[in-house]
Amino acid sequence: MIEPAKSGGAPAASDQYVQSLARGLAVIRAFDTDHPKMTLTEVAARTELTRATARRFLHTLAELGYVRTDGKIFALTAKVLQLGYAYLSGLSLPQLAQPHLEELSLELGESTSAAVLEGTDIAYIARVSTRRIMTVGITVGTRFPAYATSMGRVLLAALPPAKLEDYLAAAEIRPLTPGAIGTRAALLAELDTVRAQGWCLLDQELELGLMSIAAPVHDGPKVVAAINVSLQAQTVSAQADPEAYLKAVSEATVATAEVISEDLTSGR
C-alpha cells in the first residue's frame, strides 16, 4: 500500500505542508514494477484517495506529460525520470556506486569495491568490506598496480590505443605472485580477453589466495570506473561447481556495473 495522503488538511505539526503536492507524488509512486498500468479505481485504492481526487491528479499529470492514458488505463511516461535527474546529477560517482556495492555485497556475502585509473595505478573510491582478505588493508584511497588487478585490467582494456601505449611505457610489469602475468605481451593478450567478454577474472595474481571479478562502469560510451567482487580462492574451490559459481558472480557484478552506469548517465 502506498503511504496515503493525510485526510482532514495539513498535519498539525507544520503549516508548511502542501497536501495536494503530497497526493500528486503518492499517485506517481503508486506505479511500480508490479503495477506499471492501472485503472482509475486501482490508483485510488493504492493511494487511498477517492476516485474523484485520483481522477483529478491523473488527468493533471497527463496534461503535464508524466502520465499517458487511453481513457481507461493509466501509465507513467519516461518524463517522470526527469524528477530524479537533479538528485542524481548532484551525486558523485562514489555516492552513486556505494548503495549498489552494498546490495551486491549483501547478495554475494563478499567484499565489493569501485576504483578509477590514476597514472599506472588504480585508486579505490568506494568499498564495502565483509572481512579482511589481504595482508594489506584496503580502504578508500588505497592504490595497486593496475595491470595486477581485475579492476585495473578492465580500465586498461577500455583505453584508446595511444593511451594504452602511454601506460605500457610508464608501467613496470612484473609478476607479483607465481604464475602471474609479468610481460607486456601476456598483459595485452589478457586485455583482449577482457574486452571480448566484458569483465575480468583475476586468479591470485595480486596476492596468493585472493581472486576477484571486475566489470566496467560507463558514463555514456566512456568507461570511467570499475567495480569488483573479492573472493577467497579456498571459498571458490570449496563450491560444488566452482565454474558455475564464478559465472554467477560475474553475472551479478556485470549487472551491478550496468545499474551504476545507468544512474551515472541519467544524472548527467
Mean pLDDT: 88
Q: What is the total tally of β strands?
A: 9
Shape call: elongated
The topology string of helices and strands comes to HEHHEEHHEEEHHHEEEHH
**Straight-line N-to-C gap:** 33 Å
Fraction of residues in H or I helices: 40-55%
Number of self-contained structural domains = 2
Task: Walk me through what this model shows.
The protein is α+β, with helices and mostly antiparallel strands. It folds into two domains: 67 residues, Winged helix-like DNA-binding domain superfamily/Winged helix DNA-binding domain (Arc Repressor Mutant, subunit A), CATH 1.10.10; 177 residues, GAF domain (Beta-Lactamase, 2-Layer Sandwich). It is 44% helix and 20% strand. A hairpin with a 6-residue loop joins strand 7 and strand 8. Helix 2 crosses helix 3. The longest helix is centred in the C-terminal third of the chain and has 25 residues. The N terminus is likely disordered.
